[in-house]
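Working notes for the structural subgroup meeting. M.R. asked for a predicted model of this chain before we commit to crystallization trials. I am recording the input and output together here so anyone reviewing the notebook later can reproduce the run.

Input as submitted:
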Amino acid sequence: MPTMHSPTIQNPSVLIPVHPAIEDYMRGLLRQTDHPVLIEMERVAQENNFPIVGRLVGVFLETLARTIDARRIFEFGSGYGYSAYWFAKAVGPKGQVICSDGDLLNKEKAEQYLGSASLWDRIDFHAGLAQKIFSQTEGLFDICYNDVDKGDYPEVWQMAKNRIRPGGLYIADNVLWHGRVAVADYVDIVPGWTEAILEHNRLIFNDPEFDTFINPTRDGVIVARRKTT
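Returned structure, recorded in token form:
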């Protein structure tokens, strides 16, 4: 029997993990969750080319959090609160989402947006380096979510993995990095970032304490569940 080989693709621009028509179909299946704040956050992201996870991944994050009855979540890199919007919905009025972002202006925007959505009382937002804020925060988490600068991904994984409760989740965005992880030749946005994501993904899939999967929607979301036995 001949050996199957994956083709070597040179041009990352052709690597769209999920065809746009399929993603359009998936969006069409979603319940109408067009809260005015959500629409405004998405408009601002589009007009300013600000990276957010988008509607499909947002719903996915909320579903994951609800599935494990998450009540305490830490976000490494929160921007102006788009992903926190979905997590805050999931944790309920007694839950908490600890946010971190290096830009104080993003904290102010998040307070405005999430306050308007009646979710701010579930948020503990810190301006500063995510890793430092995490190291100063005690206890275990139901979910650790990683969306910082991509060169820091392996470090964040090493910090977070032992702070996730059994049955809890580690989630990271952009783990397919616009197809660069799967091509022989690529041009990186920042030198070393693709290599960091490749190392990050390898470390997680090779960790025997976690069950791991990549959802290829948008730019790829890795989900690793800490085993209970």
